[in-house]
Amino acid sequence: MSNSNPVYPVIWHDDRVLLIDQTRLPQEYTVVEIRHYEDMAAAIKTMIVRGAPAIGVAAAYGMYLGARAIAATDRQQFLSELETVAETLRQTRPTAVNLFWAIARMLKTARGTLGSVDHLKAVLLETAQTIQAEDLQTCRAIGEHGLNALPKTPEKLRLLTHCNAGALATAGYGTALGVVRSAWIAGRLERLYADETRPRLQGAKLTAWECVQEGIPVTVIAEGMAAHCMNRGMVDAVVVGADRIAANGDTANKIGTYQVAIAARAHGIPFFVAAPFSTVDFELASGREIPIEERDPVELYQIGTTRLTPERGVDYYNPAFDVTPASLIAAIVTERGAIAPGELAQWRGVQAG
Ligand code: MRU
């Protein structure tokens, strides 16, 4: 059923990281070479690499690239300089908790590893590779659990997704799009509706591109059309990814997700969130506490080189994420299974990764 090679947005090869440049897809498939942690930080900020789990994987490699450039052989000096690397990477994007989770895991590994600085560096590379490999496995498990959680009827489902939570947004396979993939492979997918996802158009550009790679039937719609499609009986379930899930199940995802969830509830359509367990931030009691990134207004007033709005006299507000309340979510699908948002609390204290 699949007619393409798998997509891996982050690849470790020949002592450097290769990133698929997601700002150029689908027009151009290009790969950017990253050898320095500052360049990795820039790649995350400018969204050459994007999507919560992929950002986590990229940041882990960024930590290694920073570590290997540290000249100090004294352990304490090395760890102190590594903290500077971590801080630079933390400053890239505030919402996806996977970034902070991966950096913290790399720091914990460095602090907890005995031996020479050279040995520490080698262990950090292994840890980044492990984080990447685990994410791929996690996505496959999410795909399976998500498939089991989907409505049993009709046999062939029409699913709707928002943004891109696919292979490009993870180590590979995807979370929400992983569920879609698993449904497709199992013969349970009729069609995917992909919200175009203003303003960065991840749905139109990236989700559509991934579907085309695998022959998955995809219809791109503007997110303003989602409620209409639901009203016309064209959608059986919604599956989206997540950037951060608070302890009560409130979920931050790409701006526009919330209104899709409201529309789904109004039409009695189940709304699923698919994400690795590491996306749950038990430090935050509710979605109110999730930091929401605001990006440059140029994303709103310009597409490519075309200006959309009057040159002067207009103000802009460009939050990159919104929070869907737990009450609108049928289930959160992680690698541990699909659970109601209210059941998340029982996992508090069980560490991810
Ligand atoms: O701004 P982006 O493109 O990084 O936002 C991506 C999303 O909102 C995804 O839905 C989310 O990160 C989950 S990716 C598996």
Molecular structure report:
The chain is an alpha/beta fold and 353 residues long. The chain has helices at 37-45, 52-68, 75-90, 97-112, 117-149, 176-185, 202-214, 226-231, 257-266, 298-301, and strands at residues 10-13, 16-20, 31-34, 157-161, 189-195, 218-221, 237-240, 244-246, 251-254, 271-274, 280-281, 302-303, 306-307, 321-324, 331-334, 337-339. It has a seven-stranded mixed sheet with strand order 6-5-4-7-10-15-16. A four-stranded mixed sheet has the order 11-8-9-14, with helices on one face. Strands 1-2-3 form a three-stranded antiparallel sheet. The chain binds 5-S-methyl-1-O-phosphono-5-thio-D-ribulose.
Summarize the structure.
It contains 10 helices and 16 strands. The protein has 353 residues and is an alpha/beta fold.
Which helices and strands occur, and which strands form pairs?
Layout: E1 10-13, E2 16-20, E3 31-34, H1 37-45, H2 52-68, H3 75-90, H4 97-112, H5 117-149, E4 157-161, H6 176-185, E5 189-195, H7 202-214, E6 218-221, H8 226-231, E7 237-240, E8 244-246, E9 251-254, H9 257-266, E10 271-274, E11 280-281, H10 298-301, E12 302-303, E13 306-307, E14 321-324, E15 331-334, E16 337-339
Parallel strand pairs: 4-5, 4-7, 5-6, 7-10, 8-11, 10-15
Antiparallel strand pairs: 1-2, 2-3, 8-9, 9-14, 12-13, 15-16
The structure holds 5-S-methyl-1-O-phosphono-5-thio-D-ribulose (MRU).
5-S-methyl-1-O-phosphono-5-thio-D-ribulose (MRU) is lined by residues 50-53, 96, 163, 165, 169-170, 175, 202, 241-243, 253-254, 320.
